[in-house]
Amino acid sequence: MIATIELSSLAPEPAAMTIGVLERNRAVLQRATRVVRAAANFAWVAAEDQPSALRGRLAPQARLLACDGADAGVVLAWSGLAAARVAAWSHEPHALLPLAERDERLVSLIGWPAFQSMPRSWEIALATRTILAPHAEPTELRDVFAGAPVAAELRPRDPRDRERVVLEVGALVERTGAGPRLAARVGEAAHELIMNATYDAPIDAHGEPSYRHDRRAHVILRDHEVPIVQFATDGMQVAVRVLDRFGRLTRDQVLASLRQGADAAHAAAAAVVDPSRGGAGLGLWRVYAAAAVTIVDVVPGYRTSVTAIFDVDVGARDARNLPPSLHVFDHGRLGSQG
Prior knowledge:
Structural class: alpha/beta
Order of helices and strands: EHEHEHEHEHEHHEEHHHEEHEH
Mean pLDDT: 90
CATH topology of the largest domain: Heat Shock Protein 90
CATH class of the largest domain: Alpha Beta
Low-confidence stretches: 268-280
CATH architecture of the largest domain: 2-Layer Sandwich
Number of helices: 12
């Protein structure tokens, strides 16, 4: 175990705080506040069940506000807190997508399944750590699991590699003990993310897309272009993460692509995919709609990773009715907060 706090450095309670939690349900408020406080290395957290009470306890340099999605608009409208980033949980997080598209301070839309007593604690902790330390390393698979998962890493270079990796990911899901339907969903997500990382991410010496012009082209990637595909599971959750070393995907593209996919979910693929946005329209929407949690990390000009997390015990039919989470961590924008 590595110590994360120095006891002598713990400050006394300040008059105004830079972290706040707003939740009308007091039991959930207490639980969420404990998670935020621990993830923030025991920083002081203002916790209230009424907006006016919380607003009165916040310092102008507030950095993180966590709340129920019903109060996200209220929190974002508070004046004098321009640097504060917001994580919101909701039983209908997709309804927050337009708000996130309008206001970049809303970075985490946490889906809260109705059968759970509170939003997933690891998601609240992940949002807290990332917002408070935006220059730290982007999300790793170990951030998703409570214990040490079993993991694999693959690097598809050519079309045969890509086909093999998708099959191997599906086989690993089934080896977990999950059924073939979940294996197919995870395999499809891996395929979509690998295709984006293969055709949309690489750029040439002039900064122009190398392969985006034709997704049917037989592309053999050079060493620095090969994406990294990671698989991990603890038996309860399955995660697949695809990383490229270009960092071209932006927050605006992610949200616009999801909106486009949501608006045309039943339309033909050609009506959904917009090549001008890097071809991620339908593929990214499919990943988001199928997964329990989607995490997008972008270090502009350096790397992009997209992580899709699936609940092993949730069947395909039930999964379609569960609220999907979305975290969009643009570390360039997060790092610019005051």
